[in-house]
Amino acid sequence: MSERTLSIIKPDAVERNVTGAILKMIQDEGLKVVAMKMIHMTKEQAQGFYAVHRERPFFDSLTDFMCSGPVVVSVLEGDGAIARYRKLMGATNPENADEGTIRKQFALDVEKNSVHGSDGVETAAVEISYFFNRLEMVG
């Protein structure tokens, strides 16, 4: 069943100029990019996006990191897009990520792990609408 998921290429990956390589991995997986833009989040925008983690000890460092430089946000579409993209991303900690995953290849550490992806259908809908309106998506 076709579904959509949010992808964020995080500041560490954008800074190292590996955005194109990550997008190639995504497209090689058969996922279609239906919306994409580069943004530089403010602290408030990062806090809003990660509000679900507000009480977690890593919230401040995560939101500081996410507004430390530009990110590339995109909407991916395909059959089972959420699970397929999460598998392609690999484990949050790159030391535990499988070979051939984005995080194994590009992540620097557990925080600077290069990419974010939605973890479920409901989360994807909320996350996509945080960055995109319907007019910005094709297909």
TrEMBL record:
<feature type="active site" description="Pros-phosphohistidine intermediate">
    <location>
        <position position="116"/>
    </location>
</feature>
<dbReference type="InterPro" id="IPR001564">
    <property type="entry name" value="Nucleoside_diP_kinase"/>
</dbReference>
<dbReference type="GO" id="GO:0005524">
    <property type="term" value="F:ATP binding"/>
</dbReference>
<dbReference type="GO" id="GO:0046872">
    <property type="term" value="F:metal ion binding"/>
</dbReference>
<dbReference type="GO" id="GO:0004550">
    <property type="term" value="F:nucleoside diphosphate kinase activity"/>
</dbReference>
<comment type="subunit">
    <text>Homotetramer.</text>
</comment>
<keyword id="KW-0547">Nucleotide-binding</keyword>
<comment type="similarity">
    <text>Belongs to the NDK family.</text>
</comment>
<dbReference type="GO" id="GO:0005737">
    <property type="term" value="C:cytoplasm"/>
</dbReference>
<feature type="binding site">
    <location>
        <position position="113"/>
    </location>
    <ligand>
        <name>ATP</name>
    </ligand>
</feature>
<dbReference type="InterPro" id="IPR023005">
    <property type="entry name" value="Nucleoside_diP_kinase_AS"/>
</dbReference>
<dbReference type="GO" id="GO:0006228">
    <property type="term" value="P:UTP biosynthetic process"/>
</dbReference>
<protein>
    <recommendedName>
        <fullName>Nucleoside diphosphate kinase</fullName>
        <ecNumber>2.7.4.6</ecNumber>
    </recommendedName>
</protein>
<keyword id="KW-0546">Nucleotide metabolism</keyword>
<dbReference type="Pfam" id="PF00334">
    <property type="entry name" value="NDK"/>
</dbReference>
<feature type="binding site">
    <location>
        <position position="10"/>
    </location>
    <ligand>
        <name>ATP</name>
    </ligand>
</feature>
<comment type="function">
    <text>Major role in the synthesis of nucleoside triphosphates other than ATP. The ATP gamma phosphate is transferred to the NDP beta phosphate via a ping-pong mechanism, using a phosphorylated active-site intermediate.</text>
</comment>
<feature type="binding site">
    <location>
        <position position="92"/>
    </location>
    <ligand>
        <name>ATP</name>
    </ligand>
</feature>
<dbReference type="InterPro" id="IPR036850">
    <property type="entry name" value="NDK-like_dom_sf"/>
</dbReference>
<keyword id="KW-0808">Transferase</keyword>
<dbReference type="GO" id="GO:0006183">
    <property type="term" value="P:GTP biosynthetic process"/>
</dbReference>
<keyword id="KW-0597">Phosphoprotein</keyword>
<dbReference type="InterPro" id="IPR034907">
    <property type="entry name" value="NDK-like_dom"/>
</dbReference>
<keyword id="KW-0418">Kinase</keyword>
<feature type="binding site">
    <location>
        <position position="58"/>
    </location>
    <ligand>
        <name>ATP</name>
    </ligand>
</feature>
<feature type="binding site">
    <location>
        <position position="86"/>
    </location>
    <ligand>
        <name>ATP</name>
    </ligand>
</feature>
<keyword id="KW-0067">ATP-binding</keyword>
<keyword id="KW-0460">Magnesium</keyword>
<keyword id="KW-0479">Metal-binding</keyword>
<dbReference type="GO" id="GO:0006241">
    <property type="term" value="P:CTP biosynthetic process"/>
</dbReference>
<feature type="binding site">
    <location>
        <position position="103"/>
    </location>
    <ligand>
        <name>ATP</name>
    </ligand>
</feature>
<feature type="domain" description="Nucleoside diphosphate kinase-like">
    <location>
        <begin position="2"/>
        <end position="139"/>
    </location>
</feature>
<keyword id="KW-0963">Cytoplasm</keyword>
